[in-house]
Description:
Blueprint: H1 2-9, H2 17-29, H3 38-42, H4 58-70
Helix pairs in contact: 1-2, 2-4
Amino acid sequence: MALPTLIDLxxxxxxxxxxxxxxxIALDEMDDRALSAVDSIHQLPTSSEAVTASMKNYVxxxxxxxxxxxxx
Length: 72
């Protein structure tokens, strides 16, 4: 299944910002098919010292958008 793989790839603790952003975009495109992963998405790290200042808002904003799209 793609969902567990995408959740893993969306972790800033393990992967660089580019891999994480692509995984989050893919999760966002899954729409309701990602509902079962809401708890895991909530637990994803939103920051890393390895992320440059100019890109530090990308991951938190993508996660926020995904969760908003999936509903309360």
